[in-house]
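[recover] target loaded
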């Protein structure tokens, strides 16, 4: 329920992507035994990623991609 916001920010070296929502579920670390490929793909491709609680009972899922090539 509620709004979902996607933000992408480039700092010249990394792309930081963050999705926020008002989900009431507690943020959970990725479990390789759970179905779904979203966080599995993020964990393989991203330099860093995580989930954090927001002050208004929402959550933010984020990941960073390295901009370096070859």
């Amino acid at each position: 329920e509620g709004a979902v916001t996607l933000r992408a920010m480039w700092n010249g070296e990394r792309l930081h992507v963050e999705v926020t929502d008002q989900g009431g579920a507690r943020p959970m670390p990725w479990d390789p035994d759970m179905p779904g490929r979203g966080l599995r793909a993020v964990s393989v491709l991203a330099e860093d990623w995580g989930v954090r609680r927001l002050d208004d009972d929402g959550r933010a899922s984020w990941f960073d991609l390295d901009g370096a090539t070859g």
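[recover] notes: The chain is about 10% helix and 40% strand.
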